């Protein structure tokens, strides 16, 4: 009995060592590309389940950040906690450009993004601390400015005008290149609505990194070419159905 328990312990210790070795070999730092993901706040609540509260702040009238995600790695270090003081002077900019819409604290959202994705980004010097990671995402939002690209192309939010996928893509090519993905949801009136944009970056932040698409568990799907796409204006009073 005792001998069995000892053997079991030895076996468990061995399995643990093997697991650590595998993680090291597969490498948290093996990622080549990262996804920079921006959301269109006006559409966020359309696909949100009824279990969640939804609040879109007045200030969210332009594209906001969802995250900066090194590819094929997640939750790289549970021991690296994020504290408000880690973000120094960023909270004001983050509240404006990286807010949550779940009627929860922004810091909780940032902490989850840090835990899941930020802890994996630190293999690169430019992202090796919370203030560098969150600051880099804010800079990327300026570099890959969707609001500006759409405005220059005359693509404006509207309840009663829809766009072809190709029109939207052509407006974005000058800033994002061809390797980007527009994501949509379908609303209660079977309209296809633009909600999110993903661009795949090299570790030097240039766009165009090619990789296999990982499985996506979100309700967002690549916008379909055959259907018109709506780009709804924000409606803080009725965020779940901005254009009834
Ligand atoms: C947001 O949360 C507060 C406090 O829990 C609650 O009183 C309020 O009704 C919520 N708002 C929405 C829109 O769900
Ligand atoms: C609907 O379209 C008209 C132009 O045809 C425009 O003036 C109006 O602002 C649009 N309404 C909304 C809510 O987008
Ligand atoms: C970024 O890295 C990629 C891949 O290594 C390279 O092709 C590209 O030229 C680099 N961009 C810049 C601006 O250095």
From TrEMBL:
Cell compartment(s), UniProt: Lysosome lumen
Pfam families: Ribonuclease_T2
Signal sequence interval, chain numbering: 1-17
GO molecular function, one term: ribonuclease T2 activity
Gene Ontology process terms (BP): RNA catabolic process
TM ranges: none
Keyword list, A-Z: Signal
Full protein name: Uncharacterized protein
Source organism: Gopherus agassizii (Agassiz's desert tortoise)
Taxonomic lineage from the root: Eukaryota, Metazoa, Chordata, Craniata, Vertebrata
């Amino acid at each position: 009995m005792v001998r069995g328990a000892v053997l079991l312990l030895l076996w468990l210790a061995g399995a643990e060592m093997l697991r650590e070795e595998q993680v090291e070999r597969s490498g948290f730092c093996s990622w080549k590309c990262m996804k920079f993901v921006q959301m269109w706040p006006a559409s966020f609540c359309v696909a949100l389940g009824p279990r969640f509260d939804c609040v879109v702040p007045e200030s969210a009238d332009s594209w906001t950040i969802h995250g900066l995600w090194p590819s094929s790695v997640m939750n790289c270090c549970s021991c690296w906690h994020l504290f408000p003081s880690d973000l120094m002077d960023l909270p004001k900019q983050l509240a404006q450009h990286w807010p949550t819409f779940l009627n929860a604290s922004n810091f909780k959202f940032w902490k989850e993004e840090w835990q899941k994705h930020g802890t994996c980004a630190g293999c690169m010097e430019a992202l090796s601390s919370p203030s560098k990671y969150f600051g880099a995402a804010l800079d990327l939002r300026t570099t890959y400015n969707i609001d500006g690209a759409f405005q220059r192309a005359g693509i404006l939010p509207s309840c009663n005008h829809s766009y072809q996928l190709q029109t939207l893509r052509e407006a974005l090519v000058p800033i994002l290149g061809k390797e980007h993905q527009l994501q949509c949801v379908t609303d209660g009136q079977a309209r296809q609505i633009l909600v999110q944009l993903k661009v795949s970056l090299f570790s030097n932040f240039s766009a165009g990194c090619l990789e296999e698409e990982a499985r996506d568990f979100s309700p967002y799907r690549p916008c379909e070419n055959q259907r018109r796409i709506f780009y709804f204006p924000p409606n803080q009073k009725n965020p779940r159905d901005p254009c009834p």
